[in-house]
């Protein structure tokens, strides 16, 4: 029996482990095919030669690109890509990690204010102008701090399905169900942070890759007129 894992992240994007750890784990689990699909970067592949000996199976070059569809944020996987060419295209079409976090912090804070969410004025000022004073912009997500601040104010429960959800909601569900869902009152338009869908598809095609929709059941349900 053959085992594969084609959707993993390293600490070159939002993963918690190094490329070396990922390859060693793939070897330990006797995988025969493996891919690192970091968000909006292929930086891991430029370091692959340094630790390729840790994994005896085949590595399929991959990437996961953020884009938007009908307002919602979605992720597109590209496999079998030319990573050097993809690195150049990503540089042309996506803000760098630090820059993206700063931009996203401002967008999200402004969206919450516009929706009427209660937030401490100093928090809004910092998220909009100096997010690095609140969290490590290079490694942490602004959404963790945004949700924590929202929960600090009980009156914000009115934006959620129930009091229980308000108290127990984690950042992943907050992101998918509310922040990145164009039908939500708490929607934050992320389109300034990523390439549009046709561009993403063209990028993967230009790099000789195949395109797939990542985790399709995570996105919001929307009626289609198509």
Question: Would you write up a description of this structure?
Answer:
It contains 8 helices and 6 strands, in the order βαββββαααααααβ. Mean pLDDT is 93; it is low at 222-226. A 3-stranded parallel sheet has the order 1-2-3, covered by helices on one side. Helix 3 (97-115) packs antiparallel against helix 4. It folds into 2 domains: 4-93 and 194-218, Metal-dependent hydrolases (TIM Barrel, Alpha-Beta Barrel), CATH 3.20.20; 97-192, no CATH class. The chain has 226 residues and is an alpha/beta fold. It starts with a strand and ends in a 13-residue tail after the last strand. The protein has helices at 19-28, 83-93, 97-115, 121-129, 142-151, 163-168, 171-179, 197-206, and strands at 4-8, 33-36, 58-59, 62-69, 72-79, 210-213.
Task: Please summarize what this structure is.
By secondary structure, the protein is α/β, with parallel strands linked by helices.
């Amino acid at each position: 029996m053959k085992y594969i894992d084609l959707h993993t992240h390293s600490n070159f994007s939002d993963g918690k482990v190094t490329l070396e750890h990922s390859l060693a784990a793939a070897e330990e689990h006797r995988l025969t095919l493996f891919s690192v699909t970091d968000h909006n970067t292929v930086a891991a592949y430029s370091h692959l030669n340094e630790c390729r000996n840790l994994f005896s199976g085949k590595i399929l070059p991959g990437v996961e690109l953020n884009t938007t569809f009908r307002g919602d944020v979605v992720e597109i996987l590209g496999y079998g890509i030319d990573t050097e060419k993809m690195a150049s295209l990503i540089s042309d079409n996506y803000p760098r990690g630090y820059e993206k976090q700063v931009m996203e912090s401002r967008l999200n804070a402004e969206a919450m204010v516009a929706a009427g969410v209660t937030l401490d004025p100093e928090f809004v000022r910092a998220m909009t102008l100096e997010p690095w004073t609140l969290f490590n912009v290079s490694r942490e997500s602004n959404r963790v701090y945004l949700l924590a601040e929202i929960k600090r104010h009980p009156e914000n429960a009115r934006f959620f399905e129930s009091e229980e959800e308000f108290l127990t909601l984690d950042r992943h569900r907050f992101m998918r169900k509310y922040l990145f869902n164009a039908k939500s009152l708490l929607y934050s338009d992320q389109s300034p942070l990523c390439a549009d869908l046709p561009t993403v598809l063209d990028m993967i095609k230009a790099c000789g890759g195949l395109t797939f929709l990542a985790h399709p059941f995570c996105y919001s349900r929307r009626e289609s007129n198509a």
